[in-house]
Design brief:
The chain is α/β, with parallel strands linked by helices. 33% of the residues lie in helices and 21% in strands. It has an 8-stranded mixed beta sheet. Bound molecules: iron/sulfur cluster (SF4). The site of iron/sulfur cluster has 10 residues, from loops.
Length: 317
């Protein structure tokens, strides 16, 4: 049984946020698959290991209920910079994700984004549905089958060749904004020779933007290391267009309302976050948020993890 998440205007099962996103501003997340249902089991995934590693496309959550929640959210007059198909797994695994985007385009002026690992873009029907997004962000962090298996740990049956062919085919067909995310893992793809090969492949995809990330939130696998900001910038120069290096979002809440523990747990259930990130999501003040996370930590509901200079809170239950 999925647990409900909080979003502006009430409690929803399939919507979360709007959350402050490093790239998309305030983004309303739309979650179309159960937690960690994915085609990959990336070493660096912040959500932990994939509970369902699959290539099977089906209606994982009832589309009627997702649309009811969207109707409710829009009717309440809320706004976001993006309505984003993302969340806790691979959204293109949902056999009707294109219909959700169609509905959004018809009923809202807000732009629609699709965040995908790109695993299923080799399927013509997935590319056709994905073309409904105003913005698609796919990922590419490997350069051959062996590195793909080490870094992304794909579902058996999915090859690196398929991934790249799908992302290439999509670029040819898609006229919207196409971004590629490259995730750098220390010691696995952080050497200049390795990243140059990734950069060659990414160049062929002719993305509008390239984003480079390293481990910022705590990764599922503790052996996964981050590269320094300097290394990230240096590797970013191998790309054309030049890769943009992500900075940690630290939007500080300015509200003063007392913080609701259930709302904080709903945010952290989705992914680990710093106090500032949770504040941004819930529009709470730092002071009340800190008291709330301290209480939740003392109660054993969350635990803290140091990642670089930042302290992240991880949902326990
Ligand atoms: S594609 Fe995204 S959700 Fe899936 S395992 Fe990789 S990082 Fe996690």
């Amino acid at each position: 049984m999925r647990s409900a998440g909080d979003s502006e205007g009430g409690s929803y099962e399939y919507l979360f946020g709007p959350v402050p996103s490093r790239r998309l501003g305030r983004s309303l997340g739309i979650d179309l698959v159960p937690s960690k249902t994915c085609c990959f089991n990336c070493l660096f995934c912040q959500l932990g290991g994939s509970t369902e590693l699959t290539l099977e496309r089906r209606e994982y959550v009832p589309i009627g209920r997702v649309i009811s929640e969207l109707k409710c959210w829009l009717k309440a007059g809320h706004e976001a910079d993006f309505m984003t198909l993302s969340g806790s797994g691979e959204p293109t695994l949902h056999s009707r994700f294109g219909e959700v985007m169609d509905w959004l385009r018809e009923h809202s002026e807000m732009p629609v984004a699709l965040l995908t690992g790109g695993a299923l873009l080799y399927m013509p029907e997935v590319r056709s549905a994905a073309r409904n997004a105003h913005l698609v962000k796919a990922s590419l962090s490997a350069w051959d089958q062996a590195s793909f298996e080490t870094i992304n740990r794909p579902c058996p049956g999915l090859t690196f060749e398929q991934l790249v062919a799908g992302e290439r085919a999509f670029r040819k067909e898609y006229t919207g904004e196409y971004w590629i995310e490259v995730f750098v893992v220390k010691g696995l793809n952080s050497a200049v020779g390795q990243m140059s090969r990734v950069a060659e492949l990414v160049k062929e995809l002719e993305p509008d933007k390239i984003h480079m990330n390293t481990v910022i939130r705590p990764a599922g696998d503790k052996s996964v290391g981050a590269v320094s900001a300097e290394e990230l910038h240096r590797l970013g120069e191998l790309f054309s267009p030049l890769a943009e290096v992500s900075e940690v979002s630290a939007s500080e809440g300015s509200g003063s309302a007392a913080t609701d523990e259930d709302a904080v747990l709903a945010v952290l259930r989705r992914h680990p976050a710093t106090t500032e990130q949770v504040c941004g999501s819930l529009k709470a003040s730092i002071d009340s948020m800190q008291k709330c996370v301290d209480a939740l930590e003392a109660a054993g509901r969350i635990r803290r993890e140091q990642s670089g200079k930042d302290v992240y809170y991880v949902f326990l239950g």
